[in-house]
Each structure stands twice: as C-alpha cells, then as structure tokens.
Please model this.
Amino acid sequence: MSETPSTMLELGTKAPNFSLTDVVTNDTVSLSDFEDSRALLVIFMCNHCPYVKNIKEALVDFANEYEEKGLAVVAISSNDVENYPDDSPKKMVEDAEKFGYPFPYLYDETQEVAKAYKAACTPDFFLFNEDRELVYRGQFDDSRPGNNKPVTGKDMREAVDKVLEDGSIIEDQKPSMGCNIKWKKGKEPAYFG
Model:
C-alpha cells in the first residue's frame, strides 16, 4: 500500500465543472446543482482503498452533521474499473447503501473530472466556498490505516467551520494521503507521478 499525497491544488482555484451519474439514483449530478449551498466539499474516493475504509463511517457522520449547517458534499470515484472491479458502479451502489451515504456518489468513467481537479489519491478532498473558490485541500485528519490515531475529522471540521462562519481559510493545510487514483493505462495525467 503506497502513500500518495494530494497535489495541493492552488487555493482560490474555481471549482471545475462536472456532470456525472449518481450510481445510486442514476440521476445526472452537476456542479450547478449545489449553487444554493454555502460551501461544497468534493471528495475523490473509492470502495477498496484502505485509507478510505479507515475514515468511511466517520465521513458519513461528518456529512450528515455538516449538511444541516449548509455544506453540500459530493463523492466521485474515478478509478479504472476494468483493472479494479471492486470500484465498479455496481459495487459503488453496494458501498453507498451499506454505509448509508447521505451524499451523491458519482462515477467518473472518463477520469476527466479527476484530472480537472488534479486529484491524485483516495481520499482527496476539495472544499469550496460560496463563490466556489478553493479554500481547503488537505487531510480529513491525522488517522491512517495502522497508525492507531482516532478518526476525528479534526482538520476538515476546522476548515469547514471557518468557511461557514466567516469565509476565512485555515493556513496550516496538510495534504491528504491515500492510494493513488487508478488511472487507465496510458492515461496518467502529467501532474501525477
């Protein structure tokens, strides 16, 4: 299990547009669907990654808690399902239902959305303010598989609290760490590696 850090996309970057299928409802979900939300968290994740599994239950609790405060959450899986069938849309549906995801779980078959966000790992978090400018791109917390640190969501909570309170940005942002996104052969983006 190799650790891959987030690319730490430049703060202030406008949220790239997306229009993807929610595997649970079969509805098309786009960036514009969240325009009434005070903040938007875009998460690149998948089913099989140990780093995602480590925080999955806490992530569901976090999303339930913060959606009531004005945060919209959307999860996107961009992995190559031909070589990683555990991340197929069918398995995504099973995972979403098993854990009770309160957010849309979208499938990025072409991997173009992951590339637009410069996503590198799972989980990879991108928090945008009301104007859809990037204000946080970092870890959920310090917990990693096997390090025995509790999953608290401390870093993400601090970032979301600040953006919802007064739009401010926390200065200390540690990259998220996880498994690399499983790019299709020959399709790895230039920023990756």
Q: What stands out?
A: The chain has a mean pLDDT of 95. The CA atoms of residues 108 and 180 lie 15 Å apart.
